[in-house]
Each structure stands twice: as structure tokens, then as C-alpha cells.
Design brief:
Order of helices and strands of chain B: HHH
Low-confidence stretches of chain A: 1-8, 541-550
Largest interface: A-B, 13 and 13 residues
Strand content of chain A: under 5%
Strand order of the largest sheet of chain A: 1-2
Distance between the termini of chain B: 54 Å
Mean pLDDT of chain A: 86
Oligomer: heterodimer
Radius of gyration of chain A: 37 Å
Number of strands of chain A: 2
Shape of chain A: elongated
Largest sheet of chain A: 2 strands, antiparallel
Radius of gyration of chain B: 17 Å
Helix content of chain B: over 70%
Amino acid sequence: MFLSEAASSGPQFFYLVPWVVFIPVIGLLTNILFGARLGEKAVGAIASIAAGLSFVVAVLLMISLVGHPEGEVVPLLDWITIDELKIRWAFQVDTLSVVMMLVVAGVGTLIHIYAVGYMHEDVRHNDDPKRFRRFFVYLNLFIAAMMVLVSSDNYMMLFVGWEGVGLCSYLLIGFWFEKGENGIGNSLAAKKAFITNRIGDFGFILAALTMFGVFRTFEFDRVFAQAPEIATAFPLAILMITLFMLLGVTGKSAQLPLYVWLPDAMAGPTPVSALIHAATMVTAGVYLVARSAPLYVLVPIAQSTVAWVGGLTALFAATIAVAQFDIKKVLAYSTISQLGFMVAAVGMGAFTAGMFHLVAHAFFKALLFLSAGSVILGVERGLHHVEHDPSLKKKLKGQEHHFDAQDMRNMGGLRTRMNTTFWVYLIGALALAGIPPLAGFWSKDEILAEAMLLNRPVYILLAVAAFFTAFYMGRQILLVFFGDSRSVPTAHAEESPPLITVPLIILAGLTVLGGLLNLPGIHTFGHWLEHTIKIEEAVQEIHIGEAAAAAGFNPVVAITSTVVALVAIGIAWYLYSRRYQEQQNLPVTRRPDDPLRAILGPVFTLLENKYWVDELYRAVILNPYASLSRFLADTIDWRFWHDWFHDKVLYNGYQALTRVLAVQIDLGVIDAIANGLGTASQRLAGRMRLLQTGNVRSYALSVFIGVVLILGYLLILR
Amino acid sequence: MLPVGYYVGLSAILFTIGAMGVLIRRNSIVIFMSVELMLNAANLAFVAFARAYGAMSGQIFVFFVMTVAAAEVAVGLALIVAIFNTKQSIDVDQMNSMKG
């Protein structure tokens, strides 16, 4: 709207774009070099300021884009030049990348500030205050890597960021690497995330190589410019690129079938879950598809595959979330489900809707995770309080060793004890459930409206997923905040300090106002992105004609989804407020831990165990793989190569060879020649000595005969 | 003037007598004398050819031979005396201690 009207003038700060990467790098270097001497407050401040300055740069870029919506590519240096392979380090400033930068730096800054408060307590609960600095170094490194990812102008630089965020994710999931189940749980979770992502990255690499094979370049502009003509020449190549890329997306954005790492990633500290595993990193896949929009629109098969993957993931993860008890696990599966919404949207060609949901989701999911962190800290504070109070400690008996501060069954009634956290949590949950007028309503509704038009079966998947979303969020709110507290520590939980609650309030404000970004009929965000994703309308016309261009708000869809959400919340209220409270009065042995378990029975167990997908993967992939590697290691490498080939074949062969050389060749030939010469000359000498008679006259005779012979020869023969 | 062939023939006869003497006789003194005889046979041939060709070098060479022969006599007789002192004999067949 106002973008198109704005004159192409105004301030221009595009040259600043490298600083979105450099500032966090400077921040982390400062913390590495001097952090140990500076103390916690300074470390936190440096990291937060670095993230904040990145945000300021992103804002300046946004202001510049208002005047110059076409954006600019800012080259920094040549990276790789091999023959026709030229990869440069250049920053793409356009409306899409700047949206991502704003989200990453904006939400990132708030989470940095929150983390200063959170990690202050977390490192003390875990008895290692020295690790405070390391956390912020990783966090800044993550911001830098994510900025590389979203600001690159080619697929290779994007891949550097892609791997960089994967590394940060690994480092931060395993932040308490010596903790977790059996003291190895967290590092296993980190490993799982990394390896699962590697499988996706493998797809990305294949996509990139295929792309270079066909396009002979990695740069976005040049690839997209050639795309239509390549698509007619090699349609299969484009299909391969997009499908391989989808594999990368399923890894990074936690979609079926590679989503399994994300729930385990909750082993990381809560700010990490909020920043990396909810708000920013996991949306990289969505960004990649939106960025590659000109490729995806050329192959409808790939598009519908992406849409189906997204839709199925959305529903699949939403059903699992219904039966989880860990407060963060619920949010993790919710994240997978919401990423499914986004992937489905960008898959269908509704790139604006997908990106809009990405931004809105970043707000409210970061809010939810951070609030969940606040809840966990509050309960842990309660536990701490109880442990240091002898009269209360008696009540805790029997559960102190396995008290889980993240288990919602131990919570309840926190509404009054953690008032601020409750309200922000409620806002986040309602936004996620899709209750108007919160951000989640507008963005999710846009996706549903587009899905209604573009892909009806996926619409049904998403609508059912939306129902479950509202249900599990209602369940979570009711379990955590309402009713009576179900454990002693929860009854003594305390509200978090302002350093934690203030970012929550800001995020809650963003969650409330986020919908304004792209209100139906005005479409600020849509017009903003149009400058980058020009393809959208053309494609929509191809698919469903003019009608879709005006889509984005469909009153029927909006009312349906709101009603569905309200019904789901109503059911949740009935089950978890009425039923659950009644059941609390039953004796412990007959009391079900979840009223839904009584209704659904085995289905609930199925959901609680996440469809046994982890177990399935273990049985189908991991165990055969482990047996194969054990076979390769024990049998092939050790028994065959080491024991047999090296110790038997090589060892004996070499011994036999040396024996031949020593006995046959050295003794038999070389020594024999030397000895033979010796004995031969000895024997010859034995004969020769007989000539020495000692008789002077015979000597004289031989001299005479010699002279006669020589003279005879000289005189006669010559 | 007698032709040179006579001189050379005489020289050959003398040389042969000397050589036979060295090979056949056992007395070291006689062998010694036979050696001298061979030297003188050679001298005779030298002188005869020098005269025939009118070249002085052959005659000069004879002087050298005579000088060497004189020296040889001195050494040779001394050896024979020494041998006689140890072996009480001058029979060359007795002198075979170098037998291999």
C-alpha cells in the first residue's frame, strides 16, 4: 500500500548490511576474550547489546527499503573462484530477508535480555556459574549464523549459515551436556539433533549440486532468472532440486519424517528452546522455500508434496502434543505442528501467509517458551524454598528425588502465585489457539483461507490440527495455572524477577499487535513481500484464477476456525477444570493422571508415546545401522582386516618373503658366490703351488722355454 | 772382412752353450760362468752388428753389459759364499727351501 506510493527516495543504509553479521561476531569475540574478567552482568549486557545493535541495523535496512523497495545486493568479498564456479560473499537486502533479520534480531534481543535473568538462576541450579559466559557466546554465534543464513545472496553462503545454526543448535542443546538421563541424555539429544539435521543437509547439498549442474551458478537472482527456461528444458532437474531441498527443509524445520530431533532439543536451556527451536532457526526451512519460490512454482508436484508434508506434520504433531506432560514437550510438538502450517502454506504457494505466520509464530511461540521457562524457574524456586524449610521438607518426602519441575502434573494453581507469567502465557496460548484478535488468529486464518482455495485436503488437515492446537493449549493452561497446586514445591512457587518478565510483556504486546502487520483488506505485509516474491500472484492466477488475489480473508473460514478453537477450549475446560478437579479427590491409586486417558484409553497411550516413532526409527533404522556398523567394526575391520589380513596374511606373507630373501637369496646366491670365489681360488692356488718346485734349474728351464716361445712367436709367426 | 753372419752364428753357439750350461749343470759356479758366457755371446752379437752397421750405440751398450756383469759377479759370488756357509754345498739342487 504505502510502499508502492512512497517515492523511490529517502535514506539508504544498504551498505550497513554486513554489520548484522559482524556485530554479533564482535560481541561473541569480546565475551570470549574478556568475558571471564567482566562478570555476569557485563557479559549479558555485551551479548544483548550486540543483538540489539543488529536489530537496529535491521530496522535501518527496513527504513531504507521503504524508499527503495527493490532492495540491493551488497557484495563483500569473493569466496570461492574455480573456473566457472564463482561464489561470493554478498548480502541480499530485500523485503524477505529483512523481515527475517528483524524477527531474528528482534526476538533474539528480547531473548538475550530474558536469558540474562534466566541463566543467572539456571547456572546456579545446575551448579556451574562459570558456564554463564559460554551460553552468551553461543547465543551471539547463533545470531551471526542465522543472519548469514537469511542475508545471503546465494545458496552456498546460505548453506554456511544453515550449518552454522545447526552447530549452535547442537552446542546449545548439549549446553548441560553432562546432565540429563543417565548423565548422557542431553548430549544424546544434541547428537540426535545434529545427525538428523545432517540427513536434511544431505538433501540440501544434493539440491545445491543439482542446481549448479543445471544453472552453473548459486546466486538467487541468476538462478531465478534462468528458472523458467530451464524448467522447460530440464523439468526433472527442477523437480529434483525442489524435492531434495524439501528434505533439507524437513530436517531443519522439523517436518515429517525428520522432526524427531526437535522434541529432544528441549534438553537445552529454555531461552534456547525459545530462540532456536521455536522462533528462528526452525523457520529457516520455511524461509528457504519462500526464498526459492520461483523454483517451487514451476513444479506443482513439488509444491503439493511440500504442502502435504506440512499438513500431515501439522496434524501429526498436534495430536502428539495433546498427550504430553512435560510443559516444554507440549510446546515443542506445538512448534512442529505450527511449522507444518507454515510449510504447508509456502508449499501451496501462499508465501505471504507462510511468512506472516512465521513472524507471528516467532512472537507468540517465543513468548510461550519464555513463559514456560519462567514457570519452570518459579517451580524450581519453590523446590529450593521447600528444601530449605524443615517443616515443609517432610511433606516432600518420597518425591524429592524424582521431582520434575517441568511436569505439568506437578503444577496447578500457579495463576495466583505467578500472576504476570500467567497473563502473558494466556495471551500466547490464545494466540496459538487462534482466538481473535491476537496475531495467531490472523496469520493462521490467512493460511487456512488460502488452503481452502488452493488445496482442500490440506485445508482439512490444517483445520483439524487447529482444533487440536486449541485443545492442547487449553489443557496446558488449565493444568499449569488453574485448579489447586498438585505438589508442595508448586505451592511455594515464586514469580520471576523483572529481567525475565519485562521481555515477556514486550513479546505479549507484539503477540497482541502482530496481527496488524497484515490485516485483511490492507495487507501491509503482503505488499511489503510482493517486492521480493513477485511470483505469487501470477501463480495464484495459474492455479485458481483471479479470485485468489483477493484472498487472505474468508469470513466463513475465519468464523469456522474460531468456533473450532472455542469448542476445543471448551472441551479442554470441561475435562481439565471440572473432571480433573473432581478426580483429584479420588484416592491416589484410582486417580488417573489425565482425564483424557480414561476416555481415550489405548489411543492416549499411543499419543503419549508419540506413536512410538522414536522406537520405530530405532528398530527400523538405528538398530540395523548399529548392527551394520558393529558388523563392519568387529567382523570386517577387526576380525577380517586386523586379525586375518594384517596379523595373518600380511604378517606371515612378510615373514615368508623375508625367509626366502634371507635363506634362498642371501645365503643361497650372494653368500654362495662370495664363498665359491674363495674356495675356487683356494683350490686353484693348491694346484698352482705344485708348480713351485724350488728347483732353480727347472725355473730356469721354464724361463728358457718361455723365451723360446716368445722369440719363436716374434720371429716365425709375425 | 768376414760377413756378419759368422759372428752371429758364433754368438748363437756361445749363447746356446751358456744356456745349456745353466739348465744342465748343478754346480752354481759353473752355472754362474754359463750366465757370463751368455752375456758375452750377446756382447759379441752387439759388437758384430755395431761394426756391420757402423753404429756406435751397440758398442757402448756392450760396455754397459760388461759393467753390469762385473757388478753381478760381485753380488753373485757373495751369494754363493753365503749359501756355502749355511749349506756346506754349492749344488743348486740342494737349494729348494722355496718349494711350494
